[in-house]
Amino acid sequence: MRPRVDAVTTSQLVIAPVLLPVLAGIALLLGRSLDLRWRRAFALTCALGQVVLALMLTRAVADGSVLVYALGNWPAPFGIVLVADRLAAWLLVTTSLLAWFALAYGCLGSDRDGRHFHVLFQLQIFGLSGAFLTGDLFNLFVFFEVLLLASYGLLLHGRGRRRTRAGLHYVVINLVGSTLFLFAAGTFYGVLGTLNLADLAVKAAAVSPQDLPLVRTAGLLLFAVFALKAALVPLYLWLPAAYANTSAPAAALFAIMTKVGAYSILRVSTLIFGADAGPAANLIADWLLPVALLTLAVGLIGAAGSERLRLQIAYLVVASIGTLLTAIGLGTVSGIGAGLYYLPHSTFAAAALFLLADLIAGQRGEHTDRLVPGPVMGRHWVLGVLFFLGAILIVGLPPLSGFIGKFLILRAALDHPAAVWVLGIVLGGGLLALLTLARSGSLLFYQTAEADGGTAVPPPTWRALAPVAALLTLGAAMTLWAGPLSDYTAAMADQLLQPDGYVRAVLGEG
């Protein structure tokens, strides 16, 4: 007779954000012969439904509850479980909002470049949602593979030599990462006899001295895989070319991809290798902050040296993950809370700039997104204002959310032994990013050249400008509600650093 799960911790809502996109993807695949307008309407409706489900789940866990759904009614650690807490819900909301606006932009014409754009887009959302909700290490690997397979298709969506070459590098490097993930998971299972995250937390804290080296080795191998997914130095080289050469809606959605690696680092480091993990405690505490600061510096240097706008934005994505993991590397409630406030801000800002770069490239003829003087663009004043707002957001100038996020990170770092390094690199990097984007804006909007007399390019439509403006508006909204949101992320960080509630919800009070 199968054991049953405590109904108090069970919620059917937890599985809904996973079911909706996969069912939508299947329906779109079966209906691929339908008119494109119907497929667009269906995909947009499902993406909007994902936003609603994410907000409902956020409301359900806002009081600190941890909701568990056991597939097949088999409780952990014997069965597969999905777990929703504040962190998972926060990332689901970020992903669903980002996906809706990226898809809205894609429906303006980018989805015509391939037959299965909408199917792949929904499967990407499915993989991202599952990665944030899974409570099992092996299923984290499975969802990683789903989102990576979908991203392979989206990355190669369309044609072009650059896109194909960047896609090949992306595929090969991530296949190596997937292989290492399996090695780490197999070692954990061989030593501890489980892959459930909550059960791993219990057994890693009680590991015997003779098994400790294997557990630490598997943990370091796992963190190396997550560092690859997050694009940390020196494992970031796959990202700039891949993000700079794919289609605009795919690049915008990919802005959340590195955050999956950061989420995994945060989840595993606080749950399995946290302060109460006995001899395996604080496995990566000594190196996460230095590597994050180095990633921030390298990303900004790469952005300053870029000759194309989309490549520059891709390097700014690398810099943003460095900033995020700098906050997480502080290891305090205030530091992690500041990083979690910064996470959606940096995601929305980068996505908006990727979409904007596509509009700018379409207005400049043969100059595309190269940072050289080009012809005056249609609706240049609108594009200029949006570029200015996007630059303020991603650099972190007042009064928008980027400034608040960086201020919270710097304030959290004041009592840290590495405070001088954190303040110096974050502030110096902000200055370098400001100068870099100021130069780019000058070349794109002020140092114009005479048109070559070719066919006139129609100005960007308001429908194309709307998703960019909406993503930037989300950053402004985070500024208006900075107080409640920062309080929520601080509560989220406190919940992460006290993982007993997560373990009890998954495994039961016993």
Radius of gyration: 22 Å
Broad structural category: mainly alpha
What is the overall pLDDT average? 89
Instruction: Based on Cα principal axes, name the global outline.
Output: globular
Largest sheet: 2 strands, antiparallel
Number of strands: 2
Count of domain modules? 1
Which segments are poorly predicted (pLDDT under 50) over 5 or more consecutive residues? 1-10
Q: If strands are numbered along the chain, what order do they take across the biggest sheet?
A: 1-2
Helix % is: over 70%
Series of secondary-structure elements, N-terminal to C-terminal: HHEEHHHHHHHHHHHHHHHHHH
Nutshell version of this structure?
This protein is mainly α and 510 residues long. Helix content is 70%, strand content 2%.
Question: Explain this structure to me?
Answer:
It contains 20 helices and 2 strands. The chain has 510 residues and is mainly α. The protein has one domain. It has a two-stranded antiparallel sheet. Helix 6 packs antiparallel against helix 8, helix 6 packs across helix 9 and helix 9 packs across helix 13. It is globular and about 70 Å long.
Q: Descriptors for this entry?
A:
single chain, 510 residues, mainly alpha, 70% helix, globular
What does the secondary structure layout of this molecule look like, with pairings?
Blueprint: H1 16-30, H2 36-61, E1 67-70, E2 81-84, H3 86-106, H4 117-133, H5 137-155, H6 161-192, H7 197-205, H8 212-230, H9 238-245, H10 248-254, H11 257-271, H12 285-304, H13 309-329, H14 333-363, H15 380-395, H16 401-413, H17 419-445, H18 462-480, H19 482-497, H20 500-507
